[in-house]
Amino acid sequence: MTVSEEKFTRQTLSEVRVWSPSLFSLRCSRDPGFRFRAGQFARLGVRKADGSVVWRAYSMVSAPHDEFLEFFSIVVPGGEFTSELSRLKAGDSLLVDKQAFGFLTLERFATGRDLWLLASGTGLAPFLSLLQDFEAWQRFERIVLIYSARTASELAYQPMIHGLSQLEHLADYADKLTYLPLVTREHAPGCLHGRITTLLQSGELERAAGLALEPEHSRLMLCGNPQMIEDTRTLLKQRDLQLSLTRRPGQVAVENYW
Ligand SMILES: Cc1cc2nc3c(=O)[nH]c(=O)nc-3n(C[C@H](O)[C@H](O)[C@H](O)COP(=O)(O)OP(=O)(O)OC[C@H]3O[C@@H](n4cnc5c(N)ncnc54)[C@H](O)[C@@H]3O)c2cc1C
Fold it and tell me: Exposed (0-12), middle (13-18) or buried (19+): which is 162, by Cβ within 10 Å?
């Protein structure tokens, strides 16, 4: 083993799931030594035909207690990493950095009553990990998951989201979760229509959740498209909902995907 190889482990893919032409999920084995908190990300590596390895950050979809790792990915046309990743199939290898990273975790908030999770596209991934974990359900009275995609066919993981309340360890907390799917490019039954920012500004998100955003009670996590995150943060600031920092605890935590 070379020195550089010691920084990662080689895992084996057990399952590839295609959600749409541009979205898929991968499940792979997990090194018993790989530890993470719900909301964190791993660095994944794929070997290209020329032998070089490309690395990218990927949030874990799977829960910290799962024996496997799962990731949810976009296919970027011509993307250096996703062109390779989307070609992998069960039995192929995936390199996983030994260390997990990231601060989109519940540790960011010492207090709070309502947890708002706002995702665009694959930014859903860390919230699926959080929602399969016990802590969020135990700590918060209400959890609102807002998941935005372009079309209803690009809303992935619907059976898992709708099935969360049936998980044995979460059954007592089932009525805490409000799920608001949102599509931007079409009208779809059961989904809100429009951008997160538009619906936030008009008050429709709070109306649909039956819950107000308030500095005292609300804690928000935003993940995915950096423009969505920046625009949403601007609106939240106007409502006195601030980024949570170590030196100044606040209400908002974010993870930009690019
Ligand atoms: C902390 C962190 C966690 C991440 N977690 C995930 C994850 O769980 N799933 C995931 O699919 N990606 C995730 N990403 C993005 C991922 O690391 C890569 O950017 C993505 O795999 C594309 O790689 P690429 O080489 O094919 O294209 P790149 O050259 O890396 O990106 C090209 C362009 O594609 C667009 N793009 C990149 N990622 C996305 C995306 N996720 N959705 C829509 N457009 C995108 C951007 O416009 C970007 O400039 C994460 C990024 C960060 C920083």
Answer: exposed
Pick the closest to residue 253 from 38, 34, 32, 3 (CA basis): 38
pLDDT digits (tens, 9 = 90+) for 22-68: 999 999 999 999 999 999 999 999 999 999 999 999 999 999 999 99
Torsion of CA 68, 72, 97, 93, to 10 degrees: 70
Residue with tokens 């910290």: 64
| pLDDT at position 2 | 53
Distance 41 CA to ligand 1 centre (A): 12
Highest CATH level, class, for 5-97 = mainly beta
CATH of 106-254, one of 3.40.50.150, 3.30.420.40, 3.40.50.1820, 3.40.50.80: 3.40.50.80
Q: Give nearest CA residue, ligand 1 atom 40.
A: 74
Task: Identify the residues whose C-beta falls under 6 Å from ligand 1.
Answer: 41, 56-59, 71-74, 76, 79-82, 102, 121-122, 125, 255, 257-258
